[in-house]
Amino acid sequence: MRDSPGVAVPRALAFDVFGTVVDWRAGVARESGQFLRAIGRAEVDAAVFADDWRARYQPAMAAVRDGARDFVVLDVLHREMLVDVLRAYDVDPGSLDGALLDDWARAWHRLDPWPDAVEGLARLRAHVPVVTLSNGNVALMLAIARRGGLVWDAILGAEVTQRYKPLPEAYTATAAILGVAPHELCLVAAHHSDLAAARDAGLLTAYVDRPMERGGAPAPDRHLRQSWEWQVTSLIDLAEQLHG
Amino acid sequence: MRDSPGVAVPRALAFDVFGTVVDWRAGVARESGQFLRAIGRAEVDAAVFADDWRARYQPAMAAVRDGARDFVVLDVLHREMLVDVLRAYDVDPGSLDGALLDDWARAWHRLDPWPDAVEGLARLRAHVPVVTLSNGNVALMLAIARRGGLVWDAILGAEVTQRYKPLPEAYTATAAILGVAPHELCLVAAHHSDLAAARDAGLLTAYVDRPMERGGAPAPDRHLRQSWEWQVTSLIDLAEQLHG
């Protein structure tokens, strides 16, 4: 449904990626299951391992967002988070081959799009530019896009702006790079927290419902739900609501 | 011809855009002809006007490259260069509407690809990532790409690295963003000066011959000609040489 009839159609669409465009949990679980078997830990539930890895995401970015640490790309944080989660599973990362850890950390490069994403993006891109506004770095976004056949007009986001969401500059600098005003850019995301920050920064907002992002578990940010400009069940639904 | 048989195939291709992928002179002349007529200066040779505008390109970037000026995107420099070239034609820019000047400066957004570019890029992109490594900013590259149907895996270059070519960091930072070593990245360009700087920074090099870039006039950097890893007559030729 379109919550706010009469609102202007965006001049460009910026997408959150993890959870919104790709199914991070299934991909990280699939990849981690292979590595867990390779290190003799086949009994670990790979989906829970994926959740535990992802749980370190916001804390890992906090030091960069707060300025306590210079900007580093998400690939670096993902590897640090992996080392940390392995320790929590009583695995000594120092006992593992460095190349294996590098490859495992790049599990995030090998995620698959949700079933509607390729077609939905293509239909949207026929009308307006579609760009990434993810905390993932360029090489990570590029690998996911090439793997899944996602076509972006540009890969923007944290590495380009040197700001992690939900800092307001992550959103406003992306609009400035595109040469549009914040209110002409729409963030498309499956997360109320991301959309709330984008709205505070002046962007339009489109919520995509992804009930299986956490395997059906409730979203931790559901208390931040608002009436977004658009609420859709898929990127194809968004294309139909925006451009008919 | 392939000058250095046995050299490794690049893991990614980074493209100069103005002159290499798009015909800047014809596009800027076509656009400027319309504006010159609109301001009552139809007698001016629009192709010469385009050359005079482009002649201010290297001087405009020099202050930024030298650190005398903070980084500003090429859209800003293009507008300043336009004001300067108009004065050289005895036009008072202050007498013109600001919106007209903005639109005229965006003539560079409305350039067309060389006839081989769309197909050549698509064929190359089937094998390796293709990205822009232009001094043009993201909005400028994005507009050109959408107009002409060019599909890039990422728009990199000056705005992303905050460095104008031919500074070495413009090339090495682009490789780092892509997660490849400099010697795994190949610059594709129609300009020996650009390729020479890329080679000095450790990149592979592919020269595309574009004899009509300056309407048939000799290239100002022809004295920098070297034996590049690849020398091609079109992007389709490059695809055939690289991937058969």
Description:
Chains A, B: Pfam families: Hydrolase. Chains A, B: This is (S)-2-haloacid dehalogenase. The structure is a homodimer of 244-residue chains. Chain A is of the alpha/beta class. Chain A folds into two domains: 12-23 and 111-243, Rossmann fold (3-Layer(aba) Sandwich); 24-109, DNA polymerase, domain 1 (Orthogonal Bundle). The first copy, chain A, has helices at residues 24-38, 46-54, 57-65, 74-88, 98-105, 117-125, 138-148, 158-161, 168-178, 192-200, 235-243; strands at residues 12-15, 130-132, 154-155, 185-189, 204-208, 230-232. The two termini of chain A are 13 Å apart. The model of chain A has no long low-confidence stretch (mean pLDDT 96). The interface between A and B is medium-sized, with 20 and 20 residues.
Short key terms for the protein model shown above:
homodimer; 244 residues; Rossmann fold; DNA polymerase, domain 1; 2 domains; 9% strand; EC 3.8.1.2 (chains A, B); (S)-2-haloacid dehalogenase (chains A, B); HAD_sf (chains A, B); (S)-2-haloacid dehalogenase activity (chains A, B); 2-HAD (chains A, B)
Short description:
The first copy, chain A, is α/β, with parallel strands linked by helices and 244 residues long. Chain A has eleven helices and six strands.
Strand content of chain A: 5-15%
Which two chains form the greatest contact, residue counts included?
A-B, 20 and 20 residues
CATH fold naming of the largest domain in chain A: Rossmann fold
Ranges of chain A where pLDDT stays below 50 over 5 or more residues in a row are none
CA-CA gap between termini of chain A: 13 Å
Mean pLDDT of chain A equals 96
Rg of chain A? 18 Å
- Assembly classification: homodimer
Largest beta-sheet details of chain A: 6 strands, parallel
In which order are the strands of the major sheet of chain A placed?
3-2-1-4-5-6
CATH superfamily placement of the largest domain in chain A: HAD superfamily/HAD-like
Number of strands of chain A: 6
Please state the second-level CATH architecture of the largest domain in chain A. 3-Layer(aba) Sandwich
Spatial shape of chain A: globular
Name of the CATH class of the largest domain in chain A: Alpha Beta
Helix and strand composition category of chain A: alpha/beta
**Percent range of helical residues of chain A:** 40-55%
Total helices of chain A: the number is 11
N to C succession of SSEs of chain A? EHHHHHHEHEHHEHEEH
